[in-house]
């Protein structure tokens, strides 16, 4: 079966990594030194800032950040609107964040929402005591309540620049390590921060209409002292310039996204210009810009039982390259396609009878395997109630092919969650994967998410697919309807959105050389 093409690979993940992680990574939680920060925060004044978002030279959106004072502290509101080109389509999404802060910038409550083609996803959280975060997730009428016990008192993300400026200080050479919580992935990670340079930037501070063109243009520029700050997590570096009060002036991410402080009229005009200009070629396409070209045309990838890939350009430490179908020999990754006819699981009926894989059978945020709609759809797709045969191999195949048929292949910009995908019936690899994993767990079939690269039409694209436990972790691909997945799937990461951030350090750095094993060359001439 030939893969349907590039349209269904990694769009949502790239958007999530490049935006929700790229921007929100500086908008997370940290430990506050309460008294000192409360005193420093007295100098904060209300205000609103506007930003133009770009990918390369193309404007892809605009953002606002508003800080208000209230009797017991502060309220911070962020708004971000994106229109990103991908393979001839434009993915649109709007993110909103509202955070209630105490006088020392500690978080009391937050609300995060993402509106996309699939609908709305919302997360609302409150802090109880110092370290207990209670979060309610809502999507397509499904509500999940999650409680997180954190080692340190959480403070919300958007405050990180202010914290650095008012708390630690912006002296060149200073270094900090701060635990950061991301409301879009509901995860905490430590971020290393370095202040590496000081300069003066020119920032528009007023606009006027050019009488000759009737377009907005800067009327005056303000000279602003600025500090360059580098944030590092998991081998990924993000760079930003901020002023003495912690306001972001410029920032950039490894995906080629950047943001610049400007005036509202200029940000809106840049977004409208980009809309009218249409597609921006390879450099302006979020999927093509991150693809890795192959020096070998593999043609029909399902013809290969095994492939070798020489990996270079990145430190492979920390990736899940070993295990199951994959083995790493030095810098060479060997991927073999599972021998499906001869695969004999150690259990012959569902649900899986042991407790050793409990985490891969339970619901989790965005994978609502206990939702009645997911359970009914899974049972219907696998004929689970009416057939005595509940063999895990049969059900794996039924779910893989069933999800493939159910969903329209369409790039979407969302935080994929199973209930919303089931309702919307469309999506790319992320939507196919999250729905499959939820359905499999609903039937008692251990399943997890794998993320890495897949070969399509002469290049490797970022991609997600499920793995199921059949005595070993077996890769299947409902996006392409493959049982098992072909040997051109290279797994780097296992797990949910929090783990998938690690893929960022591959982008722009990883190089792949494909080697056809000698026995394959003899059997199948290229």
Notable traits:
526 residues, alpha+beta, C8orf32 fold, 5-stranded antiparallel β-sheet, 10 helices, 25 strands
Q: How do the strands and helices of this protein lay out in sequence?
A:
Elements (H helix, E strand, L loop, with lengths): L10 H14 L9 H8 L5 E9 L2 E13 L2 E14 L2 E14 L4 E10 L2 E10 L3 E8 L2 E8 L10 H9 L6 E8 L4 E24 L4 E19 L2 E7 L5 E5 L4 E6 L1 H14 L14 E2 L12 E7 L13 E4 L2 E5 L35 H10 L10 H15 L1 E2 L8 H7 L1 E2 L1 H14 L4 E10 L2 E11 L3 E3 L13 E6 L2 H4 L10 E5 L2 H6 L3
Parallel strand pairs: 19-20
Antiparallel strand pairs: 1-2, 1-14, 2-3, 3-4, 4-5, 5-6, 6-7, 7-8, 9-10, 10-11, 11-12, 12-13, 13-14, 15-22, 16-18, 16-25, 17-18, 21-22, 21-24, 22-23
Helix pairs in contact: 5-8, 6-8, 7-8
Question: Care to describe what's here?
Answer:
The structure is a single chain. The protein is α+β, with helices and mostly antiparallel strands and 526 residues long. The chain has two domains: 278 residues, no CATH class; 233 residues, Roll (C8orf32 fold), CATH 3.10.620. Helix content is 19%, strand content 40%. The chain has ten helices and 25 strands. It has a 14-stranded antiparallel beta sheet with strand order 8-7-6-5-4-3-2-1-14-13-12-11-10-9, sandwiched between helices. Strands 15, 21, 22, 23 and 24 form a five-stranded antiparallel beta sheet that branches. A four-stranded antiparallel beta sheet has the order 17-18-16-25, with no helix packed on it. β12 and β13 form a beta hairpin. α5 packs across α8 and α6 packs antiparallel against α8. It is globular. About 5% of the residues have low confidence.
